[in-house]
Amino acid sequence: MPVTDLLRRNAREHGSEVALVELNPSMEDMRRYSFKEYDLVQQTSPRPFRREITWQVFDEKSNRVANMLLERGIEKGDRVAILMFNCLEWLPIYFGILKAGAIAVPFNFRYTANEISYCANLADVSVLLFGPEFIDRLNINADELSHNRLLIYVGEGESPQFAENYYSLVADYPSSDPDIKLTEEDLAAIYFSSGTTGFPKAILHPHRSLTQAAEMEAVHHKTTKDDCFLCIPPLYHTGAKFHWMGSLWTCSKAVLLKGTKPEVILKAVSEEHCTIVWLLVPWAQDILDALDRGDVKISDYELDQWRLMHIGAQPVPPSLIRHWKEYFPDHQYDTNYGLSESTGPGCVHLGLENTNKVGAIGVPGYRWECKIIDEEGNTVKQGEVGELCVKGPGVMLEYYHNPEATAETLHDGWLYTGDMARQDEDGFYFLVDRKKDLIVSGGENIYPVEIENFLQEYPKVKDVAVIGLPDKRLGEITGAIVEPQPGSDCTVEELEKFCTQLARYKRPKKIILADVPRNATGKIEKPLLRKRYGAERLVEQENNG
After folding, report:
1. Nearest-5° Cα angle at 436, 430 to 440
2. pLDDT digit string (tens) for 74-107?
C-alpha cells in the first residue's frame, strides 16, 4: 500500500488521539516551569513552547497542503522540496506532498546556498518550502531559485519578497482528501547522499520503500499503540524519518524535541512518558557524562516507562553500552545499520535480544538479505572480509539522473554498500572499514576528498590528507594532515581561518602540519595515517579524561 494510506487509517480510526507533539524548550523556561505547567502560562513568543496535533488534524493539514499544490499546478511525479528544522508542520507538509502524488525531497538544513541550488536543480524541484532560518541563505541565489520554481515561506511574520506565505496559502484550501490514486510502486521521495567526491546524489524511492520502513520499524522494536517515540534528529535524515514511521504504523504518539542537552532529553522522556528513544552516540555520551558528574540525577525524572534506547548512524562503542546499562540495567537496546539507498536504518539490525553481540551491526533486518563479496563479486567464506551487499523491498530505484552511479551500485537487485564487513560464526555482521573513506562524525557523513580539494587551494599547502580520528563523543572527528609548501610559514591558525568558508560540520576539527606519505602509485597511505594519528588521538583523549 502507499504510505499515505497509513495516515488516512489513523485519522479514521483514532482521529482524536495525539499524533505529534513539538517541544521547543529554552533553558530559562525549563528552570521555571515543567512542560505541563508551561502550557498554562501566557505565551510571549510567536511559537508556543509545546504544541500538539491529533491524527485527524495531521491528516487534514496534509490534505490542505496537497490541495494547494494541485491548485498551483503540481502534477503526479513533480518534485517538492522541504528545507526546514523539525517542527509540527514538517510531517504534514511531507504527507501533503505525497497525497498530491508528488515526490517529497527533504534537504539537509546544513546545505550552503550553492548546495541548495545544486540539489534543487539536480532533483528538478518545482516547489521549495522553507523555514525562517534559511531566508539569508536562499536570498543569495533567490533569482535563480525562483526561476520557474515556487518558493513558499513556512514561518510567522512577513514572507521575504522572493516567496509566498505558507499559512495564508493553505488556509484557503479545503481539508478534504484530494483522493489522488497511488500504489506502492508510485514514486514517493528523493533523499540525498554524497559520493566520495562529496557531490550529492539524488536517491529515488517508491512508496513501497516507505511502507516497508514503517512496518520494519514496528517489527524490530516491537512498537505498539501504547508506545511514545522521542525523535530528536532532523527529519530530513532518513534515520529520524523512518524510525518515526514505526509510530505511523502503530498509530502511536511521537514527540519532536528541539534540544539535545541531557536534562532536556530526560525531562522530555519524563513528562511526555516516552518509551522509545533514538539517540546518536554524542547525545548518549553526554547523558552518561552528566550522570557521572552528578549534573543530572535519574531520581529527578519519571523514567520507569522508558523501555528502549537505540542508536544508529555511526559505529557504537561497546563500552558506551556497558556504561549505559550501569545506569539503565532494564533498558532494551538495539543498533541499526542502513543507508539512504536502503531507506535508512534497519536493513541490518542488532535485535533487542542480542545485547551480548554489541559491537556487531547485527543480522539481516525484516524482509532483508545480506551477503559479503570479494572484488570479483563472489560471496566470501564466513569470517572473511569483503563488501557488504543488501537486498530487500527498501532498496532504491536509482540515483536520479545518474545512470552510471546506479549501475555501479545496483546489481541484480543487490545494493552494494561500499562498506567492508565480516560475518562471525553466529551469523552476525561486523563493519571492518569503509571502502569510500567516509567519515561519520556525530551521525553526519563527511567526505574527505571534498575537504582535501578545498585545502589544496590554499597557496601555502603542498599536500593534504583528511582522515577520521577517534572521538569519545562524536565517534570520529575530521583530521587534516597538511604538508606545507617547502619554506613556507604556514600555521594551523591561518588554515583554520581559511576553513571557515566550509560548512561548519565539514571543517577539520584537528589540523596537523606534517608530511603526507604516498605510495609508489601516488595514493595517500591513509591506513598508515589513521594508525599513527589515531593512536595519538586516543592517548590525548585518555590524558584529558
Report:
1. 65
2. 999 999 999 999 999 999 999 999 999 999 999 9
